[in-house]
Amino acid sequence: MNDFSSHLSVTVALYVLNCVATSTVSLHRDMDGERIDFINRCHHDGKRGTWTARRNFRIGQTDEEKRALTGVLFRPTTLPNLPPSHPTRAVASLPATFDARLKWPNCTIISDVRNQLQCGSCWAHTGASVISDRLCIASPGQKTNFKASVQDILTCNNKVPWNITSSCFGGYLDTPFAMWTTTGQYSGVVSGGEYGSSIGCKPYTAMDAACSLSCSNSDYGNSYANDKTHGFRAYNLGLPYPSTKETPTSAAIIDAIRNDIMTNGPLAVAFDVYADFYLYGLGIYKHTTGSSMGGHGLTVIGWGTDGGVDYWLMKNSWGPNWGSLGGFVKFLRGINHLGIETALAAALPLAPAATPPTTAKTSMTGRN
């Protein structure tokens, strides 16, 4: 081999090595780390940043793994609308700050943060959370420790006549409440604790399965039928779907949502989740960077204002180690940010003392 050929071989080899090295670095680029740096620079440099980011999941978490932590699907609502013209208390009595955990301190279930794991069941988790919270609030001393079973909602919702099956591959925000308030042998929801627990009738398994009318926990001292709880009335409130995002939400809508939380307890809500939400640490979340990951469900338990910025106080379903607030998040309030004030859902666990106004099913398209 002559000198030119030797030089050419070395050059090609170095070029190939450099290309491989460059590709390897690109494939293993820490996008979340870059997002954390960007978000925190925006916050500390005073560039309208309202929150700080941190790493909540392992380095290298893929977009597929991120999407498995979401799961809310969207469709026209099946629930009657609770119009903002029916406030449950005078607007003047609404406090600037409210936290359901403080108003109902005996209902420690409100502080309970579950973990959906790699199953797109956030829709079932927020439903189970709202059902558990409202049962405790409506029946002081009777359902203090009742945990509505995510697994029961996940596996038996397809037995409700009108429903399109919801599963680990996604579901609808109104499904748990329709299931809880309908009639028939598949109506209602039993108890069930977190993954790996032996709490309640049907603990969470993070997997789809056939519907069973018996408790999976053989050590539980109650039958499936006797463990059932039932709701009184499921409903939808908030902005109609579709509604313009990132524009001011009317005071009537905001007050109707706050009224309902303060009177009846937490609500289920869905929004368009982006990659930066997974990195939430502290402050008031506002989408800053990253691509869309789908729809995600949260449980709204209160509201407040921090540094002149209004927020909703929300409970997530990614475990208590997500974020710096023990699994909770402050979320920008008042501009329908990412659709957060569109078509919230809930149900009443007991018939109210006074007959509520008649509300026919709305033809309004809703978001679930």
UniProtKB/TrEMBL annotation:
GO molecular function, one term: cysteine-type peptidase activity
Keyword Mitochondrion: no
One annotated GO biological process: proteolysis
Domain annotation Peptidase C1A papain C-terminal: ranges: 94-348
SUPFAM superfamilies in alphabetical order: Cysteine proteinases
Pfam family of the protein (one): Peptidase_C1
SMART domains linked: Pept_C1 (SM00645)
Keyword set includes Repeat: no
Signal peptide segment: 1-21
Entry keyword set: Hydrolase, Protease, Signal, Thiol protease
Family membership noted in the UniProt record: Belongs to the peptidase C1 family.
Protein name as catalogued: Gut-specific cysteine proteinase
Originating organism: Hypsibius exemplaris
